[in-house]
Amino acid sequence: MPYWLLKSEPDAFSIEDLRQAPDRKTIWEGVRNYQARNFIRDAMHPGDRAFFYHSSCKIPAIVGIVSIASQAYPDPSQFDPTSPYYDAHSSVDNPRWFAIDVHFEKELSTLLRLEELKKINALENFRLLQRGNRLSVLPVSDAEWEIIHAQFA
DNA sequence: GCCAACGTTGGC
DNA sequence: GCCAACGTTGGC
Prior knowledge:
This protein is an alpha+beta fold. Helices cover 20% and strands 30% of the residues. It contains 4 helices and 7 strands; from the N terminus they run βαβαββββαβα. Strands 1, 2, 3, 4, 5, 6 and 7 form a 7-stranded mixed beta sheet that branches. A hairpin with a 6-residue loop joins β3 and β4.
C-alpha cells in the first residue's frame, strides 16, 4: 500500500479544518500539476495513508495523518467558470484534472517541523526535502513512512 | 522543437 | 519581501 504526502497552506485549509469538516472528509481538488495529477489518477487508492503537511506558513511541518477515501474522479472545479481552478481547455468527455476524497485520521500532538526532518540522515532522499521541490502531492516510500512515523509514534 | 519570458511555489 | 527553482506559454 503506497504512502503519500499532501501539502496544504494552513491559511487556506488546515488539518484543523479537515478535523472539523462534515464526516471529517473533504474533496482534494485544485491540483493543477501533471505529475501530481498522475499520482492521484493512477496510483492513489482508497485506504492509502498520507502525511498532511502545512506549507507556506510560519512553521512548515507534518501536522497529521489522513487517508484516501475514494477512487480518483474528475475534479469538478475544472468545469466551474466561477472557480479559481476553472480550466477552459478541459472537457467532461476528456477531463484533464482529477480529485480524490481525503479523510482525517489523526492530528499530531507535536508537529514534526521541516527543520527537524532535515536533520534526519535517513531522509536525505525524501522528495519533500529535495531542492526546488514544488509538488503538492508526492509519494513516500515504506522506509520513509516508518522513519517519519517513528518520530512521533 | 527550441528557448526566452513569465507566473507560481515555498522556504527563509 | 526576496529569491531560487521549476512549469507553462507562445513566438519563431
